[in-house]
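Batch manifest line 139
LIGAND: thymidine-5'-diphosphate
JOB: complex structure
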Amino acid sequence: MNKQNTVFDCVIMELPQVHNVAGNITAIENEKNIPFSVKRIYYLYDVPGGKERGAHAHKKLQQYIVAASGSFDVTLDDGLNKKTVTLNHPNRALYLVPGIWRELSNFSSGAICLVLASNIYDQNDYIRDYKKYLNFKNI
Ligand code: TYD
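JOB STATUS: finished
ARTIFACT:
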């Protein structure tokens, strides 16, 4: 149940890497190495130094968040527990389960935040008010 998910359900997934002296390749394939079917890919880039993104939760959306380039921090909050994860390598994904408040910060220059998502963009899936989020969590 999404309302019961905690920050401890959000784990780092090691992605496969094909090594080559000329550069590496990481491939993510539905039903093979991701726990949901990918319906949307989007990426954040050109984030000015010191700016923060996120500050919302999703009711149903599952996401893989990858630092495709550079680094940034993802602070997770389930209303009771908080944890901050630094993403800084393209072969690591943060699996973000539904119902978790998240904030993205400390973007390095040139950082690219690649997101694989389980659904298309749906404004109604967002909770953007922290008080409403706590209400959603029955806290
Ligand atoms: P939002 O998810 O609020 O970004 P963040 O939480 O990183 O600040 O999205 C910002 C805007 O971008 C919002 O007005 C809608 C638009 N948007 C899309 O049109 N499609 C998408 O897939 C996403 C993620 C955002």
